[in-house]
Amino acid sequence: VIGSPVVLVAAALLVMPLVVLRRRTLLRYYGIDALTWLFAWLLWRRLPAFDPWLGGTLVAAVKVTTFGVFLARGRDVCWSANRAALIAALVYAAAIPSMTRFPIDGDEPFYLLATESLVHDGDLDLANQYQHLERTASGRKDLRPQLGDPTGPHGEQYSRHEPFLSLLLIPGYVLGGLYGAIGTIALFGVLLVRSTVRWLEDEGIPDSAVRAVFPFFAFGPPVLYYATRIWPEVPAAFFFVEAIRGVRAQRLKRWLPALFGLVMLKLRFLLVAAGLVLAMAVDWWRARRARSQVRPALLIAVAALVVIAIPLVVVWRISGSATNVHSWREILPAPGERYVTGFFGLLTDGLGGIPFQAPFYLFALFALTYWRQLPRGFRTGLLAGSIYILYLLPRPEWYGGWAPPLRYVVFLMPVLALGAAAVWDRLPSGVVALAAAATAGLAVHGLVYPYRLFHIGNGENAVGEWLSGMYRADFSRLFPSVIRVNDAAWVAGVLAAVLVIAIVITALLRRPRLSVFSTAATPLAIAIASLLLVAGFRYGLQAASHVEFEDAHVTHEGGALHPDFYTVARFQHRGGWILQHGEAVSFLAQKGTWTLDAITGLGATIELAGHTYVVAPTKDYQRLRVVIPHTARVTLRCLTGAVNLDRMSRNE
Amino acid sequence: VKPFAWVIAAALSAYACSLAVVSANATPIDRALPFVAVVVTCLAAASAAELMLAVPLLIAAEMIIGDETTRLLALGAIVAAAVTACMQLQWTRRDRRRDSPRFRAVAATTAGAILLLRWLPFQDVLLARELLLLAVAATLVLVLGRTPFAVTLAVVTVLVTPAVPLRTLAFPLLVLFVAVLARMFGMPRLTLAWPSAAVLGFVMLFFAWSGIVARAFPYFLKQAHPEVRRSEGVPALPARASVMLAVPDGATSLIVSGANVARMRRGTPLGRIEPGGLAVTIGDAADWGYLRRDDFYGTHNPLPRDPAGKIRGYGYTAWVDGAGRVALPRGARAIRVTADAALPPGASLQVEGFE
User: Fold this and answer.
1) Residue A643 belongs to what H/E stretch?
2) What is the ipTM of this complex?
């Protein structure tokens, strides 16, 4: 099963160091490489039942991490943006087989379907594609038109997605079907890496810092995920970087087409384009020396606005509405608390937050403390993205929805990487090592279990689910969830707020004082991190005072998830677990009086910890007082009827 | 301030590791995780602070890997990476003027490796002998010039010394004596950085069963067999005794071992299998308990060609029984196993079952 990918990965890993390492550094790397192979072979012989895909990916991750260390610290390194791109190409090529072990998901098959329609029919009408799904290269025969897909007057069935990505996929698809389409995205990933490295160099980042940041950016989440799957995020990031580079170099020929490409990919990037034009205007206004410069600048701004308006026309021609499935009303401000939710979600959430899904980019937050000393490109990039982020925060899918994590902020990752690179020399090595371990772990997880990149958004994350399933205790409560707000979210929110205030204050001061991060503190920092890790673990083993019945720590003896797993925007519904008579759930709970939230249309009798309760049929959720006499694993059984159990919370 | 920071880091790491062990079925290696954390902290102090990363990795492995063998191998992989990286870093960052790393640091690496390999489980440590071995190892490192080769040779020499009976301590002293003589007669300082790292990494990878590495290291080079249910065995067969056995469906090999045959050499017959007249010799199987630390001195048995023994115990007291697999005659529905007539009194052939 894994014959050819193993050869591909092994070849990529062997060739990769040849691209940049030289002389003694190369020999040393190959020394360690040989040792890694030897130990991998020994482990493989001793663990015959171990998942070979997981084992192989772990070995590859160790090698790429080792390579990253040599790249960052090696003396004999032959470095350039093109070489970085070549390395990225090797790694992405090796990663694609991992991602395609399972059917593509989310919006991916629909982009591919549109490409197939363009190639085979020369149109965007997907009606016949839906009728002959056995022909689609995605292998997904269960596809149905998505909610809100536009239809034509003669029964045409269009996709809600902008067609530009599908158009870009055509050459790759014609050459290699599904693999060719993913290869096209990987090619954009390679271009993104090249452009980002160039940009970092243009902004005056030292070579050593660029080399250190490169593996985190190119081979860590979320860029790795999106460079090996069919989403518009990586091409968008490429166009965004090219646009900023063009603006910084004042090269119209670079930024104007890049901006056009960005907006053509997704209408939502109109906000980014507007932000960039605004940032450009501010820059020109500040830098104006003569009145004669203002007029051409204004003309260019108008040209930019016209160019980014073209996508609106294209979308209007296809769907009959310039905003496609969106509405102009979405531009109006949302209620304040939704901004808070999105903001703290991106900062702290266990499922969609940067610390848990791409911890490397936290260094960019640290960089903000040096705001005045940061490269101008970083500030321009952040300002350009700020309008978009402002509109993203109040939306319910701020964390990415049914997609790999951080989908909606992937385009901003090059900017954050630039921020991290700008303060690289100030980062303690222990913290960098922790971030490297976490990044490698996340990459391995995503590559071995790509289907876990898609989550129903029920407030749990992969680590919480895994530990909960293993120990049958609620570990998910340790991870802050802003989607389904838990206690950890409040704690993390307060910490994040303090951090943000500290960053703002430090940024306002001209001389940041962060001596606490001195390198002498590395062992202490790692030891404290270890202690926090294990303290959380011990806490997670304790009985909970709040139970969500759909969670992984609950043992389900029959029953069904509610709403269904693939319900559109499932995170907006009240989740739960439906029990019919005779079915049961068991879970670890503290003793005391609890409130059970449940709904039943038929009426039901349930038994919990030896007590019997009757749930009357109602149209709405009802709250029942129930008692658990002892802290222990308890069973809730449906004796008659059927009941949808939502959650249970301890009263005191 | 720095030494205090390291002491506090070691204490916090040890405490964190002690909290990470929650399973009622924790092995002595799991329970010794705080000790491992302290050793890792010492290694980090002696080379690079980043090596402390091994501590959270140890904790993570302990928490998330349920299967015992996988978990202990994961701990071994982390420890092996830390020890070899420590040794290599000390060598690459050595004082260019003196062309060698500080003795204190290299001695710490050597001692750390030896402690992990020989001091687990604690209750079996023979303190005076172990301290003597540590001293010999440190001297050996000093004599051989503090190179990676010196560290590895010292660790391996000490590892393969059972220290039971006492006279086995002559072996490391002999190695030290030869090393001193060789250096006195002008032997150049050997570095052999990569081969040394490979050897040291290998022994550290299996530190959870270091006793087996010490007494039967090829065992870990052989392909492990997945757990297969074995059929019941039969009573031990003394000389000339025989037994007729029905071959279970799907069985491909017979598992045999010897009792009181530890002094026999490779090729000595233990018995015969009919049909086919297959000879079972020392080499196909070995004395059941010959790899126990206390019994190892004086044994002449080699590791069986296809070892079928189960790993018993942990750390330096780990051993594997001397059972071996013998292929069954093709298509046989029943076999007769006969113990060799030349087996001495008290010795016997044990049929442990079919696989």
Assistant:
1) strand A632-650
2) 0.89
